[in-house]
């Protein structure tokens, strides 16, 4: 499989050539010539849409990131248990 | 559920004197409760705080069959620690996890059951899916973590929700093959392991885990780590 970089470059150059073809009237159509400005702005619209989408996804995932409070409490309890049991087995804890 | 397999846990340590006895105790507890055959391989990289002495004491308590010591002279990096450890592993499956208790051994039976359920080559713990999560992280840390994960998902499409996670179960020969194929270091090493695994056609299962940030000692996340991470991601982007 080819590297991700080349996949992006291939997809990017295909989209770029389609966009340029529309922009320089390589394809003749009234609809295209009437909407030149919109076509010119497409990459910017796409970039903004992608940025908004990314921010929304990351924001949602940060907001819904579980706080494992019970796990931390359980661990603290088990650390005590472990220390007591290990002391019984002859382990000496040296305090820093 | 008992299993006919043997599980070797690779525990690379550096200055984990306080954490090591607890993590070993927890591993013994959960492996025994699940009636699994296991060994814990401690790879200490010459910790100046006396981690190795602690490990020796634990070996006396639990026996040489369960606790195996494979120390190294100095800090040599995670990838080589796995190569070093796996050479001495007698199990057919290998767990890798952090020794700082951010990875709780209570999840090992879920990893094992998941592995058996789909005959997965790798089972990876995930903080980002299902009931997975983190404890002790502020908003900024969560934002960096989620943001970094999003960038990895978009650029590298690794087919795994938590690629930086280093709590995993591997089939032994697959871990050996993967470690040799990977060249990255640090956080990026774990990502490359999964990407290489996908390229080689191995299957990856996931288990949600709770990640409790280091109880003893400090986590490392500064400007330098972020720059190194970025370089590593771009390297993988260009080469894999």
Structural summary, described in words:
The complex is a heterodimer of chains A (96) and B (240). Chain A is mostly helical. Chain A has two domains: 34 residues; 50 residues. Chain A is 76% helix and 0% strand. Chain A is built from four helices and no strands. Chain A starts with a helix and ends in an 8-residue tail after the last helix. Chain B has a single domain, classed as Spore Coat Polysaccharide Biosynthesis Protein SpsA, Chain A (Alpha-Beta Complex), CATH 3.90.550.10. In chain B, the strands form two sheets. Chain B has a seven-stranded mixed sheet with strand order 3-2-1-4-7-5-8, with helices on both faces. The longest helix of chain B has 18 residues. Chains A and B meet through helix 3 and helix 4 of A and helix 1, helix 2, strand 6, helix 5 and strand 9 of B. Chain A: It is a multi-pass membrane protein. Chain A: Stabilizer subunit of the dolichol-phosphate mannose (DPM) synthase complex; tethers catalytic subunit to the ER. Chain A: Component of the dolichol-phosphate mannose (DPM) synthase complex. Chain A: One of its GO terms (biological process) is GPI anchor biosynthetic process.
Q: Descriptors for this entry?
A:
heterodimer, A: 96 residues, mainly alpha, 4 helices, elongated, B: alpha/beta, Spore Coat Polysaccharide Biosynthesis Protein SpsA, Chain A, seven-stranded mixed β-sheet
Radius of gyration of chain A: 29 Å
- Write the CATH architecture name of chain B: Alpha-Beta Complex
User: What structural class do you assign from the helix and strand content of chain B?
Assistant: alpha/beta
Number of strands of chain B: 9
Q: In CATH terms, what is the fold-level topology of chain B?
A: Spore Coat Polysaccharide Biosynthesis Protein SpsA, Chain A
The total of beta strands of chain A comes to 0
